[in-house]
Design brief:
5 helices; SH3 type barrels; alpha+beta; 4-stranded antiparallel sheet; BirA Bifunctional Protein, domain 2; about 250 residues; about 25% helix; 12 strands
């Protein structure tokens, strides 16, 4: 089955990730969940996503045949590689506008955030039953100069000076997602890693990383590893490897 094989549509939804989980058993691999109005969108580490008119907000469910049989020790890296592949699927149609990837899970243009991706696993005991992905992109919304987000966020309309077709971008991203999901299912992990690394905009630059424990690390981003981890040359003179594993859990 392909991403987009079935569409669930509703007018208003509080949390599309939970909505997708509620259809886990019946929905096919690649089912998409779209709400006209999304009232509770969030990103990594439960950060709130500001929902605005003109954004593209998409949630989809993946149920690859081999998910439950992946060795538990290998599962985290396979999920990292899936996140890399899906990030590439989203960013590639946006490269024509100058978009790139900002480790770990952001899409950026001109050093401002265009959007992000969130990946969550649905567990049944110790068995992974499915993967739910949500991504959000600023397409035709504009940030008021008084909006604090205006300093760090951007939309395609703002970057290009032109209104964009949500339908065209949506369909091109779906086609690209299917290509990269297929690469992952075929275990073409080195292709995924090399392509993902090439799209990173932070390498060689000074960055700040908010870690899961709430601490903040800053330094030069030296390298991203095949498992997705970041090598950071810290301002304190210490080199640190920061985990890429960003998978949320839905039980």
């Amino acid at each position: 089955m392909s991403i987009g094989s079935k569409l669930y549509r509703t007018h208003t939804c509080e949390n599309s990730m939970i909505w997708a989980k509620q259809h886990l058993d019946e929905a096919p691999d690649g089912a998409i969940f779209l709400a006209d109005v999304l009232t509770n969108a969030y990103g990594r580490q439960d950060r709130t996503w500001s929902v605005q008119q003109g954004q593209l907000l998409v949630t989809f469910l993946l149920k690859p045949n081999n998910l439950a049989t992946i060795n538990h020790d290998d599962l985290s890296i396979r999920l990292n590689q899936l996140t890399m592949a899906l990030s590439l699927g989203i960013v590639e149609p946006l490269k024509q506008y100058g978009a790139g990837l900002k480790w770990p899970n952001d899409f950026v243009i001109k050093n401002k955030k265009l959007g992000g991706i969130l990946v969550a696993v649905v567990w049944e005991g110790q068995i992974a039953k499915g993967v739910i992905i949500g991504f959000a992109l600023n397409i035709n919304n504009l940030f008021d100069a008084q909006d604090p987000l205006a300093q760090s966020a951007i939309s395609l309309k703002e970057a290009t000076g032109e209104e964009q077709s949500l339908r065209t971008i949506y369909t091109s991203i779906l086609a690209s997602l299917n290509t990269w999901y297929d690469h992952w299912k075929r275990e073409q992990f080195m292709l995924i890693y090399k392509s993902w690394k090439e799209q990173q905009v932070i390498l060689g630059t000074h960055i700040q990383v908010h870690q899961k424990d709430g601490t903040l690390r800053s330094g030069i981003a030296k390298q991203v590893l095949p498992n997705g981890d970041l090598m950071l040359a810290g301002d304190d003179g210490k080199q640190q490897t920061i985990s890429f594993y960003q998978i949320e859990e839905i039980r």
